[in-house]
């Protein structure tokens, strides 16, 4: 039986029981003309996985927008970056909301089947995914609700339409339960920490409404939850692990060096395995993976309490100290810009390449009528040697896409205006060493590499990763510049990038199911600001502003405008003429925008001048006194026709030939001779050009 539900305040409509009934939970979710199907399915794991085996996929079908995919392969292929990012948002929102001892395989799929280009489907998919889990028999502890916040014309709007989102100067995706916030991701034009917290808690009030609506739906159509596997004596093993891990044991792991600490931790695990052998009987053996799980769960508790007791972190830092920072720029001589940013045991090598319009990234989207060009790209790579591992090198995974996007979004409002800096910018960061917050190291390295390369960014951007520990007594400590080790044991981790004046990007994950009070967020962001300002100050010890001159390897650029109705004459049929200009003159590229703006890129000034003259002549931008080196194309009784550029000739009347050659010009000048000429008159209505031959070049 099909059940229909609606939430008028949000424009949401849901149908349950209509489609995909073999899934454990399925939700047909509509907002206007946008339709998303979200399903949730679970099956027992064949063996204890040691972690929650949750897979989340968000996919957009081009048919949803009445489009056929571009390229030769006319079907959807691997997930786009947009799909990966939306999948990660859903995953990070729901993952903390499962029971601690539930380890079945779970798959949550959301597919966009229709889009009206007004209501963005990603937020719908988050809410639909939560509802699909809630109405299923999967033991999910939700609901989770999500909203998007956009600051438009100075005011915060909940779930703005897509057009308003595009022009917003701050956007935040916020997810949470009725108790608190569990995930935030966003970008902004330097909003203050106070305004960020205000927006987040405005969002939470709206989230409560979405959650309450989901709860009402569950009351009517929800299934009884399946039992959690109790074949393992969770309490016994937990108690044994806690009993084993004395303060003296845990103190052995308080070592600054990451690799030495890992060695100490491995030795402690071996001791624990020996310790638990005494209560293992035949047929009641505990697997190595299960032992590791109980050890790590107990270690998290004991480690946290020892941090509070000693008032000192695992690497002997206090709670607000940033690890040592070193910045080096220009170490790659044949790149357009480069930097090596090192913070503790995290190291990012960044290079910047500047190109022309042909180097932009073509982005197809179901939310846009036409494909768009992006003139800024930031690519993040995480090779296995950065953490001392051996694994196959594949294409970029979800981690690489997500970290790269976070770093790129930090610069959204800090990049130079396209009119003043017409280059396409590509940044590549390789993480050479990793022990905490390589994404924020990427932000810092990218700032320095762009400045060294002469990119006139508006302000320097730095980033810091923060963590939060809570003791068994409820006491809270916020950690600045967390290591990877601390990240594993914290209840909240968040990364904040920004300038001296405010936040430009943020990503926050709350692993505590109940969320935290407002004052915790305020304290955390206040401490993050102090850390960010310290990092920016360290970066300024190397450079304080963009280099005045770019590398000689960077293509030079000349920009000017032509009449828009002349664009066709310059481009030619199928781009024939513009390709000829590029090939003949030897420039790198010529970009022509719809408003007639022309940008010519090239290494040689002479080649750029040649191409510039060619374009201007074809566009009718010819002025009296302009000079050219033209080719003799035809000799007639009354003068010479001289080609200024291919496709455009002018007439040198016999009277405009040097006097001593007027009577003998047929013999003085030969076809294809190059002669210096000057424009005497130009009639734009007829295209006729009158020239005179100059006596001296």
Quick tags:
single chain; 697 residues; alpha+beta; Ribosomal Protein S5, domain 2; 4 domains; eight-stranded antiparallel beta sheet
Blueprint (SSEs and pairs):
Elements: E1 3-7, E2 12-16, E3 25-31, E4 34-43, E5 54-60, H1 81-94, E6 105-114, H2 121-135, E7 145-152, E8 155-158, H3 162-167, E9 170-176, E10 181-191, H4 193-221, H5 234-244, H6 247-251, H7 258-276, H8 288-310, E11 325-329, E12 337-343, E13 346-355, E14 361-363, E15 372-374, E16 376-381, H9 398-409, E17 424-433, H10 438-452, E18 462-470, E19 476-480, H11 484-489, E20 492-498, E21 503-510, H12 518-540, E22 556-561, H13 567-571, H14 576-585, E23 589-592, E24 597-602, H15 605-618, E25 627-636, E26 639-645, E27 648-653, H16 665-668, E28 674-683, E29 688-693
Parallel strand pairs: 5-6, 16-17, 27-29
Antiparallel strand pairs: 1-2, 2-3, 3-4, 4-6, 7-8, 7-9, 9-10, 10-21, 11-12, 12-13, 13-17, 14-15, 18-19, 18-20, 20-21, 22-24, 23-24, 25-26, 25-28, 26-27, 28-29
Helix pairs in contact: 1-2, 1-9, 2-4, 4-12, 5-8, 9-10, 14-15
Tell me the count of domains: 4
Task: Estimate the global geometry from the Cα principal axes.
Answer: elongated
CATH topology of the largest domain: Ribosomal Protein S5, domain 2
Mean pLDDT: 91
Strand order of the largest sheet: 8-7-9-10-21-20-18-19
Write down the Rg. Answer: 32 Å
- The CATH architecture of the largest domain can be named as 2-Layer Sandwich
CATH class of the largest domain: Alpha Beta
Number of strands: 29
Q: Kindly, what is the distance between the CA atoms of the first and last residues, rounded to a whole number of angstroms? A: 89 Å
The class by helix and strand makeup works out as alpha+beta
Poorly predicted runs are none
Report on the biggest sheet: 8 strands, antiparallel
Query: What's the CATH H-level homologous superfamily of the largest domain?
Result: GHMP Kinase, N-terminal domain
* Contiguous helical run count: 16
Range of strand content:
25-35%
Please give the share of residues in helix. 25-40%
């Amino acid at each position: 039986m099909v059940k229909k539900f609606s939430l008028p305040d949000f424009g949401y409509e849901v149908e349950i029981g209509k489609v995909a009934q073999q899934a454990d939970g399925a939700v047909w979710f509509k907002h206007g003309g946008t339709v998303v199907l979200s399903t949730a399915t679970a099956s027992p794991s064949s063996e204890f996985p040691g972690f929650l085996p949750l897979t989340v996929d968000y996919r957009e079908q081009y048919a949803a927008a009445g489009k056929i995919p571009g390229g030769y392969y006319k079907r959807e292929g691997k997930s786009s970056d947009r799909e990966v990012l939306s999948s990660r948002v859903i995953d990070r929102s729901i993952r903390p909301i499962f029971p601690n001892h539930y380890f079945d395989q779970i798959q949550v799929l959301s597919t966009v089947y229709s889009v009206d280009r007004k209501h963005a489907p990603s937020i719908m998919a988050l809410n639909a995914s939560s509802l699909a889990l809630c109405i299923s028999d999967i033991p999910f502890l939700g609901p989770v609700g999500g909203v998007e916040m956009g600051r438009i014309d100075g005011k915060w709007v909940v779930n703005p339409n897509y057009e308003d989102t595009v022009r917003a100067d701050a956007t935040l995706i916020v997810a949470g339960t009725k108790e608190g916030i569990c995930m935030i991701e966003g970008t902004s034009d330097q909003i203050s920490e106070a305004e960020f917290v205000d927006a987040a808690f405005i969002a939470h009030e709206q989230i409560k409404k979405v959650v309450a609506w989901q709860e009402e739906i569950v009351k009517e159509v929800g299934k009884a939850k399946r039992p959690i596997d109790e074949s393992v004596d969770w309490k016994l093993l937990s108690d044994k692990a806690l009993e084993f891990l004395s303060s003296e044991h845990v103190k052995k792991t308080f070592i600054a060096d990451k690799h030495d600490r890992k060695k100490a931790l491995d030795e402690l695990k071996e001791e624990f395995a020996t310790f638990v052998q005494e209560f293992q009987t035949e047929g009641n053996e505990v697997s190595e993976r299960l032992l590791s799980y109980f050890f790590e769960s107990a270690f998290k508790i004991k480690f946290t309490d020892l941090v509070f007791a000693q008032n000192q972190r695992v690497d002997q830092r206090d709670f607000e100290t940033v690890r040592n920072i070193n910045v080096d720029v220009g170490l790659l001589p044949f790149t357009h810009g480069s930097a090596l940013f090192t913070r503790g045991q995290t190291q990012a090598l960044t290079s910047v390449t500047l190109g022309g319009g042909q180097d932009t990234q073509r982005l197809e989207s179901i939310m846009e009528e036409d494909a768009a060009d992006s003139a800024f790209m930031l690519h993040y790579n995480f090779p296995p040697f950065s953490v001392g591992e051996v694994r196959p090198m594949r294409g970029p995974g979800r981690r690489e896409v997500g970290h790269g996007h976070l770093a790129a979004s930090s610069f959204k409002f800090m990049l130079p205006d396209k009119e003043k800096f017409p280059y396409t910018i590509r940044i590549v960061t390789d993480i050479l060493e990793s022990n905490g917050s390589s994404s924020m190291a990427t932000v810092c390295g990218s700032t320095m590499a762009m400045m060294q390369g002469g990119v006139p960014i508006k302000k320097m951007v730095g980033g810091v990763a923060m963590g939060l520990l809570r003791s068994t007594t409820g006491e809270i400590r916020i950690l600045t510049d967390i290591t990877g080790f601390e990240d594993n044991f914290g209840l909240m981790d968040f990364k904040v990038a920004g300038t001296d004046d405010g936040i430009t990007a943020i990503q926050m994950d709350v692993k505590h199911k109940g969320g935290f009070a407002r004052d915790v967020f305020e304290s955390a962001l206040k401490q993050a600001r102090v850390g960010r300002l310290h990092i920016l100050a360290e970066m300024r010890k190397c450079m304080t502003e963009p280099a005045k001159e770019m590398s000689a390897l960077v293509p030079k650029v000349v920009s000017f405008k032509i009449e828009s109705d002349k664009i066709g004459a310059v481009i030619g049929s199928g781009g024939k003429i513009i390709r000829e200009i590029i090939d003949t003159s030897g420039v790198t590229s010529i970009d022509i925008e719809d408003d007639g703006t022309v940008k010519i890129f090239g290494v040689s000034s002479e080649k750029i001048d040649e191409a510039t003259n060619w374009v201007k002549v074809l566009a009718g931008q010819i002025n009296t006194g302009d000079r050219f080196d033209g080719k003799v194309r035809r000799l007639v009784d009354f003068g010479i026709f001289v080609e200024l550029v291919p496709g455009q000739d002018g007439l040198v009347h016999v009277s405009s030939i040097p006097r001593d050659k007027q009577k003998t010009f047929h013999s003085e000048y030969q076809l294809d001779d190059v002669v210096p000429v000057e424009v005497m008159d130009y009639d734009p209505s007829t295209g006729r050009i009158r020239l005179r031959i100059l006596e001296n070049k």
